[in-house]
Structures are given as C-alpha cells and as structure tokens.
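Can anyone check this?
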Amino acid sequence: MGFGLGIDVGGTWIKGAAVDLGSGLPAGAVHRLRTPEGGTVEAVADTLDRLLTELETQAPGSSNRPAGVAIPSIVRGGVAASAANMDGSWIGLDVRSFLEARLGRAVCVVNDADAAGLAEVRYGAGRDVSGTVLVLTLGTGIGSALIVDGRLVPNLELGHLELAGHKAETRASAVAREAAGLGWPEYAGRLQQYLAHVEFLFSPDLIILGGGISACSSEFLPRLSLRTPVRPAGLENSAGVVGAALYAAAGREALVLP
C-alpha cells in the first residue's frame, strides 16, 4: 500500500509522520512541534509547513503526496464547523482549500478523533472487532469516534456531554485530571461515571481509550467496572497521525473499513 503523510493538530502539540499504510506504523520517528499559542489559522499553517519539510527528509519523494491533516474540529466537506482549544478564526473556514494554497499540495482534512478511530479499527485495538466500536481520546479534551460495522459515524462530539453539571471533557480529560491534581483513584471515579453514561447511550461492543494518557492505562483501567470491554489504544498517541495518513491515501473510502 506504500506510505502516506499524516499530521495531527492538537491543542498542545502538532505531530506528523510518514506512515506505512500496510502496517499502520510510522515509517520513522513521529515528529512534533509545539502548537502556536492561540492556535490561529496562519500560525498553525506556518507550523504545518515546517513539519512537512521535516517529514520530506524522512520520506524522500513525498513532496507531491497529499497530506492528511487531523484537526480538533467538526469537519464537513473540508470546512471547519467548530474549534476546540483553537482560535475562533477556524470556524467556517474552508480548511482544505486554505491549506492547499498555503502548503502547495493536496490536503485532506478530517476530525482528529475520527482519524484516531479509523486507525484503531484498521490497525489497532479494534482490529477484527465487529459491531459497534467507540474510540475515546483523552487529552486536552475528549475526542470521540463511533465505528459501526466498519463504517465511521463522523463528527461525534461526546466530550460535550454533561457530567456532574459540567461539560464532560472539563471533568474527565487527561488535562482536567492534571489541572485538578487528581490521583488515579479519583480520576478513575470520574471516568467511570462518564463511560457508564456513554455505554448506556450507545451500547458499544468495545470501548477503546486513547490519547497520551493511554500509556498509563494500567493505573486506571483496573478501577473501572463496565459491561463493555475497555482496551487501551493499540497505537497509543500516534493514532491521529496514522488515521490522517490513511484518510489522505484513501479519501472518503477510508470511512468504510474492509
């Protein structure tokens, strides 16, 4: 299948890699640059340009390949309809056209959690799992992707569900845990409350927890009690990069997995 270029724009870091689309593994190191303070469109585009220059040294001949860019936004037809932890100038912007003009190459834009979900079901913890798979990324906020019988339901925003009178991601994300100084037992209690709610709403066959905190899954997964099996992300924090590369290579066909 060759390789693709994937970039994941987060609230703290912008990560990218050339990805082997056969295995789903980055072909080299995952490069990362700090997300510009404020997350304005122009500043992020400048950072993407720098990151792609770095990736081209890792994957010779990639200068003409399309880049997949996962962003923390509802994305419809390449247009951003929201901006989580980013500047409001993203909202309503045709991000695909803007980045293609700015970067001088074809660009495919996808919601960041959807990218992670696609990657986990194709290559990671959800591989060969039938039925309904819910992928939740616990990071600056809570991203969510729902894959039903191999078909992605795009732009799910379950981080905005209410939890104890607050938006769930302000209580149960990785950043919320750090901000509140919660130990693992206290954090697991909040996560249990949130996961029990989404389990009731969607009755998934598998829940996958990703984001940077997935590397610490042994600290909180044993403390959870749900009917649904819960697994840490197989690709850990590179799932968004891998999914973006897959989307760039396959286009909308990536939304339906074999």
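Reply from J.R.: I decoded it. The radius of gyration is 17 Å.
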